[in-house]
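Q: I have 277 residues here and want to know how they pack in 3D. Can you give me a structure?
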Amino acid sequence: MRLGGPIFAKTETPESWAEALAREGYRAAYCPLGPEADGGTVHAYAAAARKSDIVIAEVGAWGNPLSPDPATATAALDKCKAALALADRIGARCCVNIAGSRGRKWDGPDAADLTDETFDRIVATVRDIIDTVKPTRSFYTLETMPWMYPDSPDAYLRLITAIDRKAFAVHLDPVNLVCSPQRYFASRRLIEECFAKLGPHIRSCHAKDIRLGDKLTVHLDEVRPGQGGLDYPAFLRGLSRLDADVPLMLEHLPNEEEYRLAAAHIRAVAGREGIAL
């Protein structure tokens, strides 16, 4: 596996971008470009990544293709297609979005989100994205989520079967699947189930942690890796059995120092497990 995360240094060239990643000890990176980037720029960053042994993990396509507002849904769908096209051009392992919500908030919960009707709409949306772009080397993925599909390993398998496209794959964020005390205290079992059922399809993963509070009713808060209850030894063991280039990407931290602390924790766990990053 390859550890990666955002960089805070200002970089104006592909070479300085690669150097900034190397200074942090990262061997994987978020895509540094947007879909509007011209062919020459895309080629230059892809070449710099190859030269420096950096894997571009993912292109984010964050938006809501299921929005109840037609204009918002159309714009999000177009953004997904443009992001997948960029992922294919630059050689990123995947393009990632969430499935979307039928409620007011693009990534929030809604009573309709875990229904058969919404499942079918997700299938149609993902097929449209893939069939329009026709990627040849990258993949479209949906980040696992607590209150929308895919909300479990079995839900992801259902989507893989229903979508039935070779360019559809898995983006694993196990913290997002921890939505109850039952899953929190059994995170090892949850993680092992994810790898057993989804392992060959996983293109990228997110690294964060989660903490269960002691105030009623139930409070689950995202925290820095090492500050919560996620079974990181199980997570890293599962990743170590996959393709050696699978990225583990840090996210959602407020500053450079927090990212360095998170990376240090993951490297320490990996060292104890005899796992190379």
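Q: Anything worth noting?
A: The domain at 2-273 is CATH 3.20.20.150 (TIM Barrel). Residues 70-90 form the longest helix (21 residues).
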